[in-house]
Amino acid sequence: MARQDVELLAIGAGPANLALAVALEELAPAGLAEGTVIAERYDSVVWQRGMLLPWTQSQVSFLKDLVTLRNPTSRFSFVNYLHSVGRLDEFINLGTFTPYRQEISGYLQWVADTLAKVRIHYDRRAVAIAPRHGAGGRLEGWLTSFADGSEIHSRDLVIGAGRDSRIPAEFAALPADRLIHSADYSARIAALDPAGKHRFAVIGGAQSAAELLWAVHQGFPAAATTMVMRSIGLKNYESSKFTNEIYYSSFIDQFFQATGPARDQLLREMHLSNYAGLAPAMLDTLYRQRYLERLSGDERLKLITMTDITATRFEGDEVVLTLTDRLTGTSTELAADYVLLGTGFDSRMPALVRGLADRLGLAETTVDRNYRLCVPGTEDDPRSICRASTRPPTASPTRCSACWRCVPARSSATCSSTGWAPACSPTSPETSRTESRTRHDHGNPPAEPRRADLRVRPVHPAPGALAAAERAVRGLLVDRRTGHLLAPARAPRV
Known about the structure:
Elements: E1 3-11, H1 15-27, E2 36-39, H2 78-84, H3 88-94, H4 101-114, E3 119-121, E4 126-133, E5 139-146, E6 151-159, E7 179-181, H5 185-189, E8 199-203, H6 207-219, E9 224-228, H7 251-257, H8 260-271, H9 280-296, E10 301-304, E11 307-315, E12 318-325, E13 331-336, E14 338-341, H10 351-360, E15 366-367, E16 385-386, H11 397-400, E17 407-408, E18 433-434, H12 466-471, E19 477-478, E20 485-487
């Protein structure tokens, strides 16, 4: 069994770990970039591999690439990629901030091919991670096992392999060849006859489900396509410029310092800016297509709203879904040949990370502002691991290319003076948080805030101002994120 020793192992060659690789090449101490290996399970770098459809566009500005916000002059920028491949003039003339998805994917592969120090190993799928301890039980590194039987021992470890597909329990017993999740769509759908009279049932009511619906509607002209959702109908993302300020890098600190109830509110409202809606162009396309089909009397694109799928079965070479109307409580059945799941991804830590946590004996994953995963007894150990992201920990993977990570803290290299990791601050019990309050997903409500979270800044009124403050008591301003009293203020007059 082959074993390799490296300084830093990063699992997954997606946007987060490629951004890390760029930062290592540009800023890391001597030898660290050369001692870094990225292990990618596939034979190439592809962005949103399962949904790399030719007409899909990014929902994020090209300026939010792997490096521009950190180093606008970097040779690894998206603009430099366009210049390198001779497409800069055409892209400028296109007049958009949101490139086609396939162009972003090409950019990521270009960055991977352009790296001079960090090495990428393709076709290496990690299956297990174990901590390695030395004398006295001191943590000395990590041993990662791969599907081909090889192993890599690393001092530091980064996991940026994305989240696991979410398969609702109602569909778990269906035959695998009749169930296609969006993450596997492109590879799986290629096996079907484009001229076949297939019946597709698309489950979900957000962007990925809408893209699945449109893809099969256009790719299979003889097919019947039906979308089933719990909501009252498809709707736009919340995408105002005011709302999008929550995706600023500087918002990380605001979110981290917020109280538990404030975090809960932020995550609920952020849900509307990503997971709960569609891009306006996609929404308009679907509505116009349904309108035209109803006008012609040939309706192939159907939407069933306010409906739960309460049971499924495979019977007589077809999938039968039991649909329960949320308005009336009545149930009907829908027969389909294939079920397409636009149900997103598991809100828990990825299975690879959960397995590591089990090996470490962690009852919960507690992290600090620098994403350090606190392992009992290793608080001062430079090999303690962290979970990190290239974007705010509240941001979604699709909107800001954020990925799940575990990054081991280095006693010196985690500080901003080294340039390759987020700026660090002293870790203390008051600044640590549990997973349910820092992870990317919105599935679990935050834990109740610790007393240390409720820090109130005292307000000292000037002489003679107390009476005025009492008269304006109804206008007191309190920051809902931190609980801080901002100022006694009178409500504005109109």
